[in-house]
Design brief:
By secondary structure, the protein is α+β, with helices and mostly antiparallel strands. Among the domains are: about 150 residues, Dna Ligase, domain 1, CATH 3.30.1490.110; about 160 residues, ATPase, nucleotide binding domain (Nucleotidyltransferase, domain 5, 2-Layer Sandwich). Helix content is about 35%, strand content about 25%. The chain is globular, with a radius of gyration of 24 Å. The two termini are about 45 Å apart.
Length: about 500
């Protein structure tokens, strides 16, 4: 099966197996997609029942192999969950005596970054993506080579995941007997599948509305700026519908077939119409109007939108996403959800379709937004250059993320053109997961009141996730203790 690339997405409600090839024009040609419902296996992006996940995946793989007449022995995978975070850190090196920034200076900076380790052994850095470069701490650019100065600095975006979650994902692959050839963050994969080059350049927020989680991916100047996974997905709506005495068996079908995210999207001839739902007994019938069902749905979708708005603001990107919001994932199929997002956020909103770098024959094949992540995994596997412009080379084991041996001492940058004191200062780190803001001094971050309120609400409504709601702050504190904070001026890239 050397000509085939296989992607596996272990979602909260479905398992997706997608198979693709590369056509003569270098575009992705999707030849097979299987989507199998998953019950009680993945909760909020985390594998909770490995037996159920393994059984469903094995069945899906067997069916795919039979259709294509191939044997699948390796695949690329995605991983999601609230543990996936992104945050920034800054570094610098000194330039040679002539002051011209060369490729080796940029490489040296990236090599230093490659040796940075997360503050806790339970974490893994999946991606290290340069955001922008500075010359002598003031001139900012995305193309530093050929410019002049004494000091080359850069701010990097680190995408970090929980090692135990990655290990659980690996166990599933081990049990079905295939090699996990690469692993990618699901929010990044889906955003690469649905956001256009123009959108990523002008600034765009890709919101993946999953069953158990909602992921947010923000791009600007064709660089990934922020990633977050909110531990609230479209399944929370089901709990509220259940409170209207609707039997569990019919809730999902009711939501999908008759649900609207906002009452204004309901046709006039339906808004007061009654929907009949089978009750718990043969002769029992439950009733609810389209308007009342929409009211229940809208309340929860508004909660999700508030979290999304909060992530955009916390990332400092509220004024830098001219292309607005792209909605993908199964939740984007809910009627009127784009209207509600547009009304609440004030941004232009469109529903996603996977069409970037995909053959015309495949576009209809992967038009279902539930397939966005798997499609993105295929794209990333076949086109590593998609991130090459922003991130350095992956680790040599080709496992889809950088995971180098932990060192006890900071990397020492050898630069014979400068004195010992200058050489010691040529490699510095600010707080690893400290979010920068424009024209401010770097100092230990205080959580915004808005963020604290959201985290408190998140903890109250999701007790099982409460310990992770302040993960970024915890990581920042640990890293500050280890490395301290640089007190230099920092300007965000505009």
């Amino acid at each position: 099966m050397s000509k085939y690339t296989v992607a596996i997405d272990l979602g909260c409600s479905d398992i997706v197996v997608a198979v693709g090839t590369k056509d003569a024009d270098g575009k992705l040609n999707v030849v097979d997609v299987a989507l199998k419902p998953l019950n009680d296996g993945v909760v909020k992006g985390e594998i909770s029942n490995i037996e159920n996940v393994t059984k469903t995946l094995r069945t899906t793989l067997n069916e795919t192999e039979q259709r294509l007449g191939i044997n699948i022995d390796e695949a690329y995978a995605s991983i999601s969950g609230q543990h996936i975070q992104s945050a920034t850190s800054s570094y610098f090196v000194y330039v040679g005596n002539d002051g011209e920034v060369r490729e080796e200076d940029v490489r040296k900076l990236k090599d230093n970054m490659d040796n940075v380790q997360p503050p806790e052994e339970s974490m893994v850095i999946m991606e290290r993506i340069p955001q922008s470069y500075t010359i002598d701490n003031h001139e900012q650019t995305t193309s530093p080579i050929g410019r002049f100065g004494r000091q080359l600095g850069a701010t990097f975006n680190f995408i970090v995941a929980n090692k135990s979650s990655i290990d659980r994902n690996q166990k599933v692959f081990d049990r079905v007997g295939i090699r996990r050839k690469g692993l990618f963050a699901a929010p990044l994969a889906s955003s690469l599948a649905v956001a256009t080059e123009d959108e990523k350049e002008l600034g765009v927020v890709v919101v993946d509305l999953g069953a158990g989680t909602t992921s947010v991916c923000i791009w600007s100047y064709n660089v990934l700026r922020h990633v977050a996974v909110i531990p609230m997905g479209m399944n929370v709506i089901n709990k509220d519908i259940r409170s209207a005495s609707i039997p569990d068996l019919h809730i999902e079908d009711l939501k999908v077939a008759h649900g609207y995210a906002v009452a204004s999207a309901i046709p006039d001839n339906l808004i007061n119409k009654t929907i009949n739902i089978p009750g718990r007994t043969k002769h029992e019938v439950k009733q609810i109007t389209f308007r009342d069902l929409s009211t229940i749905i809208e309340a929860r979708v508004l909660d999700i939108i508030e979290y999304v708005i909060g992530e955009i603001k916390d990332a400092g990107m509220a004024e830098k996403v001219a292309s607005g919001i792209v909605l993908t994932g199964g939740g984007s199929l809910l009627k009127g959800i784009d209207t509600l997002f547009e009304e609440r956020t004030g941004y232009d909103v469109r529903l996603a379709s996977a069409d970037f770098n995909i053959s015309d024959e495949s576009k209809e094949f992967v038009s279902d937004p539930r397939l966005a992540t798997a499609t993105g995994v295929l794209l990333m596997a076949q086109n590593p250059e998609l991130l090459a412009a922003q991130s350095q080379q992956k680790s040599t084991d080709n496992e889809g993320f950088s995971y180098t041996a932990k060192t006890n001492n900071p990397v020492e940058v050898q630069n014979p053109d400068f004195t010992d004191s200058e050489q010691e200062d040529s490699y510095e780190e600010d707080s690893f997961f400290e979010e920068s803001s424009s024209n401010t001094k770097r100092k230990p971050r205080k959580e915004p009141k808005e963020r604290k309120k959201r985290d408190k609400k998140k903890k109250n409504t999701n007790n099982e996730e409460g310990g992770e709601s302040n993960l970024k702050r915890k990581i920042s504190e640990i890293f500050n203790q280890l490395f301290g904070v640089i007190d230099d001026d920092d300007e965000s890239f505009n």
